[in-house]
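Onboarding guide, step 5: your first structure request.
Type a short instruction followed by the sequence, for example:

Predict the 3D structure of this protein.
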Amino acid sequence: MNLYAMLSSGIGAAESTSLTTRLAAWHDAMVAHERRLRSGRTGDACDDECPHVEAQTLWAEALDTFGPRASELAFLRSRAQRINGSRVKAK
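The system replies with structure tokens like these:
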């Protein structure tokens, strides 16, 4: 069972189920995106559609949905905080 599903297991609302599905898909996209960035391929630079940008929205939703338990989502939180850092560049 993945962390996102475990986190929402006690909540049971359709909102948490939907968010859990989106978080799992985001996680996979983020991992793939960061791997491409590390490979040095220039065509994979961050833009307005990259998973880094989505992380900020998902982090806010996770805080609203999961409350203090959202702190367990360290990967999401760290990527959401990077949106204002030098790693993410808008076109």
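Each response can be followed by summary notes, for example: DSSP finds four helices and no strands in the chain.
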